[in-house]
Amino acid sequence: MMLLPYVSRNDDLPLVRKLYRNAEVVRTWDAVSSDLPGMMASINDVTSGGEDIPDYISATGIGSVAFEEVLRRDVLTPYSSFGLMLTDRAVGLCWYNNML
Prior knowledge:
two-stranded antiparallel sheet
């Protein structure tokens, strides 16, 4: 919900909306060029379900454009496509479906 004011359909913040869209383009290009079926986002680490919630992974992303050091690039999450859906619903749903 915090993203909605920045990507609203009105033209109040066109530069912010363009910047947000460009960030989503970079994320999808990175996934394609890295041959990944989806995109990364901060998330709890993987578990078999029978253990406590593992550590939170926040240092994920694209090292060449990141502000912080990227420590993990091995965990993908379907919810990483939600921001893309705000930019282009059809493309975001395609990525979501691909990850599922």
